Amino acid sequence: MISQTEITGLILAGGRAQRMGGIDKGLIPFHHRPLIESVIHRLRPQVGSILINANRNLEQYSTYGFPVISDDDLSFSGPLAGFAAGLKACPTEYVVTAPCDSPLLPTNLVELLVTKMTEGSFDLVYASSKDPAGKTWAQPVFCLMRVSLSKSLEEFISLGDLKIDRWFKELNSSTVVFDSESAFANINTPEELLTLEKASS
């Protein structure tokens, strides 16, 4: 079994947040505290250490006491760039990722991803959720992966492809379907922020 100390949590806060008017999403107030604090609160007990991937406001993010790493290419090229930076900086054999704008992420996220990875000796396991109609949706920015995938990801990015699902298809990967769709709710617009605050108050 993979122990908690072997896993580093990588919080992805490197996006442009264009639909939020370009505001740094991790620092937007959610229930009177920055969004990233809710993510740290839920992820920290599940992992051995934390890394924060950010491309601006680095000083502000560093006040949380965790290493802050930026993408190699500061063109805000999406989650895979954050993955790549995290895999390079990760001090452990495994890394689990979560975005900074999903404050209700499952408290058993790592436990279930680890169980699936161990069962099938997978290189990467990502979360999926089920909506009320029973349809399954991939939640690829919530994933557990072996740090040994760093080279594979660098090669994939170097070909100019930034689609997460395409990279996953090249790997020995699997998914875990979580019952709670709301656990993966993320905030892309001011309206979604208000809706999620009301739903979680």
UniProtKB/TrEMBL annotation:
Gene3D superfamilies registered for this protein in UniProt: Spore Coat Polysaccharide Biosynthesis Protein SpsA, Chain A
Primary enzyme class: transferase
Requisite cofactors: Mg(2+)
Annotated signal peptide: none
EC number: 2.7.7.77
Binding site for GTP: 12-14, 25, 53, 71, 101
Binding-site positions, Mg(2+): 101
Domain of life: Bacteria
Family statement: Belongs to the MobA family.
Protein name: Molybdenum cofactor guanylyltransferase
Species assigned in the record: Polynucleobacter paneuropaeus
